[in-house]
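Known limitations

Files may contain more than one protein. Parsers should not assume a single record per file. Below, a two-record file is shown to illustrate correct handling: read the sequence, read the token line, then continue until end of file.
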Amino acid sequence: MNLKTFPAKPLTADIVLIGAGIMSATLGILLKELDPGLTIAVYERLDAVAAESSDAWNNAGTGHSAFCELNYTPQRPDGSIDISKADKIAEQFELSKQLWASLVQGGQLPDPEAFIHSIPHMSFVWGAENVEYLRKRHAALLGSPLFAGMEFSDDPAQIEKWIPLVMDGRDRSQPVAATRMAIGTDVNFGALTRALFTQLSQQPGVTFELGQEIEDFRHKADGLWRVKVRSRATGKSRKVRTRFVFIGAGGGSLTLLEKSGIPEASGFGGFPVSGQWLKCTRPDVIARHNAKVYGKAAVGSPPMSVPHLDTRQINGRRELLFGPYAGFSTKFLKKGSYADLFRSIELGNIRPLLYAGARNIPLTKYLIGQVLQTPEQRIAALREYYPEARPEDWQLEVAGQRVQVIKKDKKAGGVLEFGTEVVTAADGSIAALLGASPGASTAVSIMLDLVQRCFPEQAASPEWQATFHRLVPSFGQPLAANAALTAAVRAHSAEVLKLA
């Protein structure tokens, strides 16, 4: 789309961003760097920034690099390990670190210790079959420069040095194994999002409004969008005129996308999954664990339910969480309505919803079982990772709400996806981000792709290309095929972001 044509009537803004989460913040910063003259209006329905999925308590805080997440390295029928998705995700997070480092150097982001910290990423398994899987996974990943330096051990004594809580009280006759990447990270995406929006809101031509509900969209013959915005405080509505709309409202994106009326939105549905954490309340226990330890998900469970015993840095405090415990709610947002799921059902997505539902009955049963778990059952799950856990040292915390994407499929009728999906209009004038994990960690990669898709002429220009490479030095170059480039950009990001 062309951002330089002049409409007959004044615009409210060149760009409208819906939702004050990490996705909108990343896109806003990128566009302002690419074209400082752009005007941007941001609208958020809540009275705070990053209050839903981007909030530190509502997500895992893992800088997802596929270092420890076993669901990104499936085993093929012949027993070999497929690392293609792991390579992709690891590369995407390197792009994120490069942009953050550039913004820190440029003064647009604060001291990186406010939002990112080094923490080893580990996988831990038990049982002979799982140990053999982890051994093969480790060997396969070492073939990629993105996983150079990954350690493997099936020695209980070594694993105890790495993660003593996990080994305390464990039967030493049980086969166990672990991998460790020392360069893993913990990211407070809430703090990062707030810092990005602070920077964005201080730039000329940017307006930022909280407590604003998006009621409707109209795409007019002049190519502009009229967005109907209602103040939740006063109830008054107004129409906003813009050339481009980005819907980055987390779980709320689906229903807003449906209101846009674009043909590309037809057939998409949503499957909401809720979550809970166990939070440790004993400082001495918290102090003894220093890693993000991921295990294998239960059969039939969604990827967001992969269990992990997780050291976090949240609002200046060290925390220890275990979970998440999945559940089902018809809400699409943590602070949403129980009617969200039903409101999202339209004629165009009934068939995909029914087919996907029929094919995922075990998942539904799993989620219901999670909802019905007793406190004793939750502690039993924790003890698989921390055998000496005491119930009185842990309290239950509600995590965020995720909406997994359901999309139409010619063969299957409808399929349930566990990633992210960017939906754009044919003319590139509106785009929406649907889905969940790995989400925030790959925001930079997703937004770079979106900018090139929606603004192809500008993105191909020498000016924008130069800015892409200034902000993200490895832009356009596959890291998995270039060990020297991977080492160089990783070392630079680590130095600027103060990572070990």
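...continuing to the second record:
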Amino acid sequence: MNYSACGLAVGDSFELSPTALTVPAGKRFCYFAIASVIPAVLGRLDADQPDAFLRGRPLLACPDPPENLHIRVEVVEQ
């Protein structure tokens, strides 16, 4: 199967900062997909070089196997 029960499409995104999670206005994002990203990102902040992991643009997977949803983590420069 290759579907999105949450209605996500290529290019959908959210931003995670040290103080908040932001989803673009009028959009939505799956709780389970977000829950798979947060510990992977926040767990790296205590590393010697936390940005090294994020700069590598890791690819994470949603925990719902039938969705086959993959999430690319990228650093957004402000």
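Parsers that stop after the first record will miss the second one. For reference, the second record is described as follows. The longest helix spans residues 31-42.
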